[in-house]
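WARN retry 2 of 3 for item q-0093 after timeout on previous attempt; input resubmitted unchanged.
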Amino acid sequence: MADAAQIENRVLYWLANDSTILSLYRAFDAGTGKDPYCASAEILRGKPVAGKKENPSEEDKSWRNVGKVCEIALGYQMGTDAFADRCSAEEIDLSKVGLTPKECLEKWRQNHPSIAGPRGIWRLLECGIEAVVKDGKPRQHLVDGTSVMVTMNDRNLYIGLPSGRHLVYRNARMSASLKFPWKQQVTYDSPVGISQLYGGLITENIVQAIAADCFRFWILSAEMAGLKVIGHTHDEIIIEALEQDLQSVLELIKSIMKTPPPWAWSLPVNADPDSHVHYKK
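OK item q-0093 returned
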């Protein structure tokens, strides 16, 4: 099994053109930098948090778990109540580190202006998509040598991904927000009924789509390299191999998944392959 390490987080910061955090991931991958989850936790704690390879204390482990849930959950404009529920589901007790869900959320947003700031990716995408729906003129979001293109065609909103694939929102229009009636919001017809877009949700849709395109690229690359891909779950590729070939297969799939697709050449990616006699999470 080979897991695409922190793939959504990496794509999120790449989409947001956050060179500082992308450099952190590159250093971590090279074995010279901090664990990104510990780095996130240090912002909240105000002092160093030891990573897995640094003989961490139980307190350090608790802080790393807090940093991890913040990085995974808060990148898409999640609110305080939803974040509290997420922490509960992950069995993370914020009171052990002296924080509340509101404090975590506010500190994370304050220290991630490329995501949550006035010119962060949430705001840029929301304003750009609203403008396209209103006037029909294409808008482009540049991402280090590539772009995300937003267009309207026959009342449908199209988001062109770097891979060339499109996300499509049918019958897109501006209408009163279902949650905040005093404001207008991009509304579209989804398979489950009328739905609405906001900055965090648009960001999540694009990030997950790009991550999925990367994953497909790696599956095809693995098969072209002669590996026997027998399945995949979320961000893991499952490969069947003979025991005598195990080491070479692990090295090959790691090499494949450390190589970004050509349309995302500057995206720092990594993998964490492991072997078992049967599938296990």
